[in-house]
Known about the structure:
Elements: E1 10-16, E2 54-55, E3 60-66, E4 72-79, E5 85-91, E6 104-115, E7 118-129, E8 138-143, E9 148-156, E10 162-169, E11 177-184, E12 187-195, E13 203-211, E14 221-229, E15 236-238, E16 245-247, E17 254-260, E18 264-269
Parallel strand pairs: 2-12
Antiparallel strand pairs: 1-3, 3-9, 4-13, 4-16, 5-10, 5-14, 6-7, 6-13, 7-8, 8-9, 10-11, 11-12, 14-15, 14-18, 17-18
Keywords: Signal
Region (Disordered): 24-53
Signal peptide: 1-19
Amino acid sequence: MKAPIPALLALLLLTSPMAAGPGADQRLPWCKGDRRASTRPPAAPPSLTSPGACQAKASSLQRTRPIPAPGYHHLGATTTTGWSGVLARLEVGDPGVRAGTFDFLATRVMAKAETPDGLAWLEAGWAETGWDGAGKQRIYTYDTNRDSWAFYSQYEVKPGDQFWILVQTEQDSPAPAWQAWLWWGDAWHLLTSQELPLTGRAQIEQYVEVHTENPFPVPRLQVDNVQLKDGPAGPLGYWDERVATMPGTPTGGYCLDWIRLYYTWAANTCP
């Protein structure tokens, strides 16, 4: 299978602070900046009417233009059937991304679909990039409506931290709103909402994604408690061996450890 190419390697065309921008839902109050990462898991998926739910502000939006990308490595798995959301807990690490390059590492989940106009998707997780961010790990989203990285620097994450991320839709239509949520301070923070031609069910990915021409060290990064949403109003259930799945394999000097198929796993530079 041809590897997907999310978060395209690119020349930066625009880097700007974003007060609100596309993807904000004005029905929600703005999120406060004084909350910390949650230590307990969410009890249920959010909606726009969930108690305590709020709208996050992107600190910067970096629009991109594709250029050749010779070194993508995807460590994780993709469903072969359609689902309406994915919830996962992601662990943050400190990879050896080189400053002043277009190298990056992202640990993320994604909903995607092939359309007449090409691949459409929404992804969310954390990333460290060589072109911006001063070597810090940052919460981010990327969507094909904007073809841009949106970073959320108000959510401070560091190596060893774990946080919950959710990508979902609550609608079943040709181009429903797909949402990216962060569980933070025991409340749901809406990072972005994008109308995308994915319908109410899309292929789901969970990956540690590495881009580089020269391999850089990646510490052991764990993804766990991965669950899939069965229908826009359906329940969550663990992404296990009963789910039709295309698992990844070790690649480019990076190893993949399926601890529990497919909801607990880790990736890192091979020993």
